[in-house]
């Protein structure tokens, strides 16, 4: 296949990603002439919907932004509103929020690995074909996802668009017996999560090393879920309040989602970025097993993203075991809230990466303004940058079908949630 | 193995697509404390549905069926072939419909011993809001009465669905 061809690949609808997007790739004389990741889901206007709504409505409204990561939206929102009202939730609430978040990481990562990413690496079009050849692994994935959903239901009342979180805490605290049963289930599935990590670390992955910037929360004492500071692989160390001073969002003509830059550069958020910036919090048991497989973190290979998700499932199960093992019923699962005029910022680590919120409230606690920066919109510029690099490394003389599959694999490394970002893939390839 | 009959209504908050929930709500009120029947309402569960099916002896699934040929409110018992013809519309994890979930469950041997699909047709007119259209509301009442009649006579099993493929659309509803 010569490099004189002009090729245009159109992937009009990206599959196995969340939401609606497309990719256009034009190759002329063996060079990429145009590479454009387009998000064409219509804007969802959640920030505008929130204006004028009462503070206590916010957690349930933002939970509707995503069916996969509603906990993240709720946790960033309550954190921001608590800052605006100058209240500090109890230690019990903080630990249970971490536990609640563990459920979301487990279900979201298990879903992405098994339904969306693994078929790529095992040569199947979908999880159905994969399940026929790898039934035990598929069952394991479903069991882990169900565990995560159960954990979310415990505190959220339901796993999709949960309703249990409130500013100041939770509406309901499960009894000790319920928590004991959850603890037992976590113990049962811990070996399954370990097996998943070991299996993912054994799968052959492309060796594509790229010089990207990782951005994630860090925490001195624990792997970050919902508390800590924001760090980058280039030395950033800021609070949620400072985000606007360092990060810039702009509109790209081909996308309904805002693009985000750190010091004018694309950057990565998500499991790989988190792992890269928090390796000191990796349990020794995981580190030694990875070492035996020849895998080390930090990693600049985006194809380690699926493994990073598997590792984070293990971390989340360990965390959930620790918290559920020391569970006690509180006097009250929330503290009373007195609204006031103020500005609050919240940032937490959604399964797909940093989720930043800012709210301005009036004296009655009505939302005057809201700003929500989801992970996938932050990763958009980075995805295009990665595609450029990865396609060159892969070789542009591959067939259209091979190029398309490679592009989709690269994009799925980010587990993009276009519906959230709307702020995603049809591939259009034109080769000349 | 759970010997109870499990009736699952699948829906969304979007107009007539909520009919699965309404069936469960009305059945629940009429069944009282009956211990041999468990009713569950689910919001577009995707593959999460499998968790509700695995280990069950018998399940009845109720869902909306999008139809261009039949008027809203008609009863359908979609079979494997219909689901196959509906095609796979899975575009992402948000788009895992009933057919894909059942197909995956079937592939993994996680389907109940007996599974029935009960559909009520919906159109494109009532896709928002919290109320059912009159025609779909009537269809829901007819299905509830049909279920109650079978339960009263203890005629639980009439048809078996052995798993299959197809798409029930991007919402919880099926296409027909």
From TrEMBL, chain A:
<feature type="binding site">
    <location>
        <position position="47"/>
    </location>
    <ligand>
        <name>Mg(2+)</name>
    </ligand>
</feature>
<feature type="binding site">
    <location>
        <position position="423"/>
    </location>
    <ligand>
        <name>Mg(2+)</name>
    </ligand>
</feature>
<keyword id="KW-0479">Metal-binding</keyword>
<dbReference type="GO" id="GO:0016151">
    <property type="term" value="F:nickel cation binding"/>
</dbReference>
<dbReference type="InterPro" id="IPR018194">
    <property type="entry name" value="Ni-dep_hyd_lsu_Ni_BS"/>
</dbReference>
<dbReference type="InterPro" id="IPR001501">
    <property type="entry name" value="Ni-dep_hyd_lsu"/>
</dbReference>
<feature type="binding site">
    <location>
        <position position="420"/>
    </location>
    <ligand>
        <name>Fe cation</name>
    </ligand>
</feature>
<keyword id="KW-0408">Iron</keyword>
<keyword id="KW-0533">Nickel</keyword>
<keyword id="KW-0560">Oxidoreductase</keyword>
<feature type="binding site">
    <location>
        <position position="66"/>
    </location>
    <ligand>
        <name>Ni(2+)</name>
    </ligand>
</feature>
<keyword id="KW-0460">Magnesium</keyword>
<feature type="binding site">
    <location>
        <position position="372"/>
    </location>
    <ligand>
        <name>Mg(2+)</name>
    </ligand>
</feature>
<dbReference type="Pfam" id="PF00374">
    <property type="entry name" value="NiFeSe_Hases"/>
</dbReference>
<feature type="binding site">
    <location>
        <position position="69"/>
    </location>
    <ligand>
        <name>Ni(2+)</name>
    </ligand>
</feature>
<dbReference type="InterPro" id="IPR029014">
    <property type="entry name" value="NiFe-Hase_large"/>
</dbReference>
<feature type="binding site">
    <location>
        <position position="69"/>
    </location>
    <ligand>
        <name>Fe cation</name>
    </ligand>
</feature>
<protein>
    <submittedName>
        <fullName>Coenzyme F420-reducing hydrogenase alpha subunit</fullName>
    </submittedName>
</protein>
<dbReference type="GO" id="GO:0008901">
    <property type="term" value="F:ferredoxin hydrogenase activity"/>
</dbReference>
<feature type="binding site">
    <location>
        <position position="417"/>
    </location>
    <ligand>
        <name>Ni(2+)</name>
    </ligand>
</feature>
UniProtKB/TrEMBL annotation, chain B:
<keyword id="KW-0064">Aspartyl protease</keyword>
<keyword id="KW-0645">Protease</keyword>
<dbReference type="GO" id="GO:0004190">
    <property type="term" value="F:aspartic-type endopeptidase activity"/>
</dbReference>
<protein>
    <submittedName>
        <fullName>Hydrogenase maturation protease</fullName>
    </submittedName>
</protein>
<dbReference type="Pfam" id="PF01750">
    <property type="entry name" value="HycI"/>
</dbReference>
<dbReference type="InterPro" id="IPR023430">
    <property type="entry name" value="Pept_HybD-like_dom_sf"/>
</dbReference>
<dbReference type="GO" id="GO:0016485">
    <property type="term" value="P:protein processing"/>
</dbReference>
<comment type="similarity">
    <text>Belongs to the peptidase A31 family.</text>
</comment>
<keyword id="KW-0378">Hydrolase</keyword>
<dbReference type="GO" id="GO:0008047">
    <property type="term" value="F:enzyme activator activity"/>
</dbReference>
<dbReference type="InterPro" id="IPR000671">
    <property type="entry name" value="Peptidase_A31"/>
</dbReference>
């Amino acid at each position: 296949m010569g490099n004189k061809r002009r090729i245009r690949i159109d992937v009009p609808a990206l599959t196995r990603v969340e939401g609606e997007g497309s990719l256009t790739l034009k190759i002329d004389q063996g060079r990429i002439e145009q590479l454009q990741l387009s998000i064409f889901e219509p804007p969802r206007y959640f920030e505008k919907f929130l204006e004028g709504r009462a503070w206590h409505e916010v957690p349930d409204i933002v939970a509707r932004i995503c069916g996969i990561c509603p906990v993240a939206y709720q946790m960033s929102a309550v954190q921001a509103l608590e800052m605006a009202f100058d209240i500090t939730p109890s230690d019990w609430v903080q630990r249970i929020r971490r536990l609640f978040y563990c459920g979301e990481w487990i279900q979201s990562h298990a879903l992405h690995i098994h339904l969306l990413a693994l078929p790529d690496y095992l040569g199947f079009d979908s999880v159905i074909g994969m399940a026929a050849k790898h039934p035990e692994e598929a069952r394991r994935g479903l069991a882990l996802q169900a565990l995560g959903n159960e954990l979310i239901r415990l505190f959220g009342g339901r796993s999709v668009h949960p309703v249990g979180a409130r500013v100041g805490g939770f509406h309901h605290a499960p009894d000790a017996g319920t928590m004991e049963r959850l603890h037992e289930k976590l113990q049962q599935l811990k070996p399954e999560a370990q097996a998943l990590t070991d299996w993912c670390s054994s799968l052959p992955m492309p060796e594509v090393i790229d010089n990207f910037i990782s951005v994630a929360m860090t925490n001195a004492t624990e792997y970050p879920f919902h508390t800590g500071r924001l760090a980058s692989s280039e030395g950033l160390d800021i609070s949620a309040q400072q985000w606007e001073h360092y990060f810039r969002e702009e509109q790209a003509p081909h996308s309904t989602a805002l693009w985000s830059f750190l010091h004018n550069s694309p950057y990565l958020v998500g499991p790989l970025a988190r792992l890269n910036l928090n390796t000191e919090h990796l349990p020794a048991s995981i580190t030694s097993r990875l070492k035996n497989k020849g895998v080390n973190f930090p990693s600049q290979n985006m194809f380690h993203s699926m493994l990073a998700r598997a590792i984070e499932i293990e971390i989340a199960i360990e965390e959930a075991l620790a918290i559920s093992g020391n569970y006690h019923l509180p006097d009250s699962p929330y503290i009373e809230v007195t609204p006031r005029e103020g500005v609050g910022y919240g940032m937490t680590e959604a399964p797909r990466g940093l989720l930043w919120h800012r709210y301005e409230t009036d004296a009655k606690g009505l939302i005057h303004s809201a700003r929500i920066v989801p992970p996938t919109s932050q990763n958009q510029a980075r995805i295009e940058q990665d595609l450029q690099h990865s396609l060159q490394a892969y070789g542009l003389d591959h067939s259209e079908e091979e190029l398309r599959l490679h592009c989709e694999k690269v994009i799925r490394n980010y587990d993009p949630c276009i519906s959230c970002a709307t702020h995603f893939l049809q591939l259009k390839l034109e080769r000349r | 193995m759970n010997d109870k009959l499990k009736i699952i209504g699948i829906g969304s908050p979007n107009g007539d697509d909520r009919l699965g929930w309404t069936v469960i709500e009305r059945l629940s009120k009429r069944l009282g404390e009956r211990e041999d029947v468990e009713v569950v309402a689910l919001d577009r569960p995707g593959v999460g549905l499998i968790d509700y099916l695995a280990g069950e002896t018998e399940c009845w699934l109720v869902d909306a069926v999008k139809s261009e040929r039949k008027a809203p409110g008609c009863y359908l018992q979609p079979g494997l072939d219909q689901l196959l013809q509906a095609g796979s519309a899975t575009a992402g994890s948000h788009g895992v419909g009933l057919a894909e979930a059942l197909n995956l469950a079937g592939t993994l041997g996680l389907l109940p011993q007996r599974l029935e699909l009960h559909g009520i047709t919906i159109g494109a007119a009532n896709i928002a809001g919290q109320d059912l259209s009159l025609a779909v509301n009537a269809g829901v009442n007819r299905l509830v009465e049909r279920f109650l009649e079978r339960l009263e006579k203890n005629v639980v099993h009439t048809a078996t669905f052995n798993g299959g493929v197809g798409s029930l659309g991007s919402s919880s509803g099926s296409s027909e």
